[in-house]
């Protein structure tokens, strides 16, 4: 027994040595970007990165410039901060950079979903068919019905709907968008009231998973939280199971088409349940938080609110309830809202903070717009963090921290697409949806549903901040890099349905 101590100690030394050795041996080679391994063996800068990715990367850029390699948990990430040089990374035609294998590992860990090689293509082609063009027009009708159901209730507004109600703005937006999006995409049963209750209960679980999500991805959960996460995963697999879906009407063509492809390729039903969980996450994790930021900015900038309301009245006319149960809303008006489009682009510029990651498949030379060249090693990861390198660049977006509702409008009221860096026209001036192979396939649908919600709010509701002087809350630093950011605290507001004849 006494011998076990030294044996285990020896084993530990060997394991730690094996983990740290490659890091100790790694040195910057000629023509490689500056290498910053940090002081902690193997972990490198992982703790500072996970604590506040934005501040960490800002510090690294100040120290090393526009390209640098950092060690994070035994892996090497090369961050590229010059958006004029993004082209070769995003339009990689040589298949030097891979997104799919990396994504497959992530979805296996987070959703339990074992992806197949054709999945990425299948998801994007189903989305092109059903979340864009004519498919999107059909889905918009469904989303309007879902939003009416969630906001007005199954029997239409209750007698007290025109009295003031107080709530947290973040929770309100997230909950409404989640319930409407979930019902619109995953379908209804015959009992609308029960569907609403089920969606409400599912949102509570979704929110719990959402709160644990960043630390789960970084493997930082405590033992109890691990248990909780696996219970939540199990619950979602059950609640979203294909068996339960069979009893539903109106499952969206988008989801139906993808599930059919999975069946055709022989994916078993338990794996399809996991696929549904992954799609629930992708479709519902960002729209609610984005609408929170949009409504908050409108409330804090009355000139923007006035411009959006004027545009809404111009394209949609006066607010009116149909059969006292649903909102009158001409969906074609969504194509004629340049002011609201600019508000959404500006909100996403300030609120969306995705990280774009690619795994390097073979050694390659990164050619910068300046002409400088860097050697990048096979096995490393190349990362873009556009929030810092694009959205917050004062050269591209003057006063980048300020919300300017007309930033994306030309003086003649058309959409502004001309932005410059160092005097050169820049293609990637706002990247909330990612870009290249991993661009969000739901972006057109997301914009439509968020715009319908915002328009319904400004037309049909009175709403105001409980404390109009309260500053906009800072972004929760633990969520940098994970899609749309969330506020570090809730904002109280009150709302009521405008009294109507
Ligand atoms: C404000 C709302 C949204 C934002 C900001 C957003 C953003 C993003 C981003 C940045 C990615 C790429 C992630 C990466 O590079 O790893 C992504 C992927 C994805 N998004 Fe969205 N998204 C939104 C809403 C939606 C909606 C409503 C849907 C579907 C109905 C959707 C479906 C997807 C899917 C399926 C993927 C994975 C695509 C793949 O595997 O390549 N998203 N989204």
Major sheet details? 6 strands, mixed
- Pick out the low-confidence regions: none
Briefly note the structural class of the backbone: alpha+beta
Shape: globular
Strand content: 5-15%
Which cofactors or ions or other ligands sit in this model?
A: protoporphyrin IX containing FE
CATH level-two architecture of the domain at 119-354 and 392-497? Orthogonal Bundle
Query: Strand arrangement, largest sheet?
Result: 1-2-3-11-8-4
> Counting H and I runs of at least 4 residues, what is the number of helices?
18
How many strands in all?
15
User: What is the residue-averaged pLDDT?
Assistant: 94
Say which CATH homologous superfamily of the domain at 119-354 and 392-497 is assigned.
Answer: Cytochrome P450
- Class of the domain at 119-354 and 392-497 in CATH? Mainly Alpha
Range of helix content: 40-55%
Q: Could you please say which CATH topology of the domain at 119-354 and 392-497 applies here?
A: Cytochrome p450
User: Terminal Cα separation, in Å?
Assistant: 85 Å
Radius of gyration: 24 Å
């Amino acid at each position: 027994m006494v011998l076990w101590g030294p044996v285990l100690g020896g084993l530990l030394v060997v394991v730690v040595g094996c983990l740290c050795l490659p890091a100790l041996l790694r040195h910057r080679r000629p023509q490689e970007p500056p290498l910053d391994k940090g002081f902690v063996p193997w972990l490198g800068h992982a703790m500072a990165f996970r604590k506040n990715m934005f501040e960490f990367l800002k510090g690294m850029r100040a120290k090393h410039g526009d390209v640098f390699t950092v060690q994070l948990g035994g892996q090497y990430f090369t961050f590229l901060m010059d958006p004029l040089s993004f082209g070769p990374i995003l339009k990689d035609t040589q298949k030097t950079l891979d997104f799919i294998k990396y994504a497959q590992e992530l979805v296996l860990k987070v959703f339990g979903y074992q992806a197949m090689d054709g999945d990425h293509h299948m998801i994007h082609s189903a989305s092109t068919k059903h979340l864009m063009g004519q498919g999107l027009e059909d889905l918009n009708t469904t989303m309007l019905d879902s939003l009416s159901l969630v906001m007005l209730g199954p029997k239409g507004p209750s007698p007290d709907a025109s009295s003031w109600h107080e709530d947290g703005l973040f929770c309100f937006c997230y909950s409404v968008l989640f319930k409407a999006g979930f019902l619109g995409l995953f379908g209804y049963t015959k009992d609308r009231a029960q569907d609403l209750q089920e969606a409400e209960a599912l949102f509570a679980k979704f929110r719990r998973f959402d709160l644990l999500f960043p630390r789960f991805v970084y493997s930082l959960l405590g033992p109890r939280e691990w248990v909780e996460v696996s219970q939540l995963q199990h619950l979602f697999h059950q609640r979203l199971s294909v068996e339960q879906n069979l009893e539903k009407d109106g499952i969206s063509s988008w989801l139906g088409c993808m599930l059919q492809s999975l069946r055709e390729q022989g994916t078993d039903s338990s794996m399809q349940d996991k696929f549904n969980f992954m799609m629930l996450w992708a479709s519902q994790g960002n729209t609610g938080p984005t609408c929170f930021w949009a409504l908050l900015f409108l409330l804090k900038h009355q000139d923007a609110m006035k411009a959006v309301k004027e545009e809404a009245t111009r394209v949609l006319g006066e607010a009116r309830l149909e059969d006292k149960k649903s909102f009158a809303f001409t969906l074609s008006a969504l194509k004629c809202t340049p002011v609201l489009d600019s508000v959404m682009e500006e909100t996403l510029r300030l609120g969306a903070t995705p990280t774009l990651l690619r795994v390097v498949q073979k050694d390659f030379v990164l050619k910068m717009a300046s002409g400088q060249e860097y050697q990048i090693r096979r096995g490393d990861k190349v990362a873009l963090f556009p929030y810092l390198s694009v959205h917050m660049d004062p050269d591209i977006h003057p006063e980048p921290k300020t919300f300017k509702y007309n930033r994306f409008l030309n003086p003649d009221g058309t959409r502004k697409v001309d932005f410059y860096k160092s005097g050169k026209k820049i293609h990637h001036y706002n990247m909330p949806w990612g870009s290249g192979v991993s661009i969000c396939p739901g972006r057109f649908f997301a914009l439509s549903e968020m715009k319908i919600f915002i328009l319904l709010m400004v037309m049909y509701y009175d709403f105001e901040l409980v404390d109009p002087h309260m500053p906009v809350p800072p972004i929760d630093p633990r969520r940098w890099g994970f899609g749309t950011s969330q506020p570090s605290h809730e904002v109280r507001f009150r709302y009521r349905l405008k009294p109507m004849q």
